[in-house]
Amino acid sequence: MPAIVLLGAQWGDEGKGKVTDLLGERVDYVVRYSGGNNAGHTVITPDGQKYALHLMPSGALSPSAMIVIGNGVVVDPKVLLAEIDGLAERGVDVSRLRISGDAHLIMPHHRALDRVVERYLGSSRIGTTGRGIGPAYGDKVARMGIRLQDLLDPGILRKKLELALREKNQLLFKIYNRKAIDVDETVEEYLQYAERLRPYIAETRVMLWDALDRGETVLLEGAQATMLDMDHGTYPFVTSSNPTAGGACVGAGIPPTAISKVIAVSKAYTTRVGSGPFPTELFDDNGQHLRKIGHEYGTTTGRERRCGWFDAVVARYACRLNGVTDLVVTKLDVLTGLPKVPICVGYEINGERFDDMPMTQTDFHHATPIYEELDGWWEDITKARTEDELPENARRYIARIEELCGTRVSVVGVGPGREENVLRHPLLP
């Protein structure tokens, strides 16, 4: 079977890791194609073990799938090695990992600049994780980035680092009054990483092309989500890469014609972390309920997630933009016990109704949600495995999401565990 893209339909944290893990035993390759360790996937195995993954593809918990970090990812080698070691200590086979030599490295100056610039922005800050992802992508675009393959040539590593630090140290020391980065110390540190990472670095594009030629299944796993896409999200409150379906081709080296299915994941409500517009955000007891019951705290940062009702305008936009073939709706169980469950079906902006995303950032900031209220349910749905086992009002809620998004809902998550799902349509044949 050709390639499958799995991505988020909101602002991230939708439960992509769970879906990747759900598919992991039925695919041959799981490829992470964008982002860095600013992302987090939480996976709970059948025996109740919880894994928080940041750089490693969620397929790492599959017993057989090859796991690949593609060229579109930015890699902090210290974080990656700590994650490799942590998984190995828990008995996870990490020998299946391969990393593109063209993936860019996060360097000490990236982390330093990320933190200090965000601090200086004050109330205008973006809400980054401070892990250096944005500055690393910035250097990549400016053609002064350092790649994983550079770790294999100490001379090139030093030359590129010296060139980068001519500018970066001026910024850190003279503009932001911070300590300059030492070239020798950094080269020594990163060459130590090189020795450990060397066995994993590979030409991953050819590996994936060969796999597709053999008819094997390649799952392309995005970090973050559609509304955080650099080009198509709520700019400037976005990530620094393209987590949408088009980004999968660029970030993994997969041709568009190889992709046969696009699976999008959405919560049954909406959350986002960091700054930026969020039309359905709740500041009342309902918002606190969603945060508490849904355990809405960032996997990577631990920050409280902002919570709101399901936004069908955003979800429909994501489905159309990505060419979504299957929608997975997670955390339906969190809505249990609410007498009414509203869905945002449009926006009102300056007295005018919008059923699609408004063109300008200003309009989106001022969008007032138009809600359609559906009746809630009180029954425990965590044991449901078929649609017939869901309460009638829960079925109506899912059917309305499907209708508004124009895309079939294939799986409904009714709990955090791997098996806690209602399967409406198979994701794989």
From TrEMBL:
Q: Recorded E.C. number(s)?
A: 6.3.4.4
**Which positions bind GTP?**
12-18, 40-42, 305, 331-333, 413-415
Q: Which cofactor does it need?
A: Mg(2+)
Gene Ontology biological process terms from the UniProt entry: 'de novo' AMP biosynthetic process; IMP metabolic process
Cofactor: binding comment:
Binds 1 Mg(2+) ion per subunit.
| Statement: the UniProt record of this protein carries the keyword Oxidoreductase | no
* Residues engaged in binding Mg(2+): D13, G40
For this protein, the record's NCBIfam families field holds: PRK01117.1, purA
What is the protein name given in its UniProt record?
Answer: Adenylosuccinate synthetase
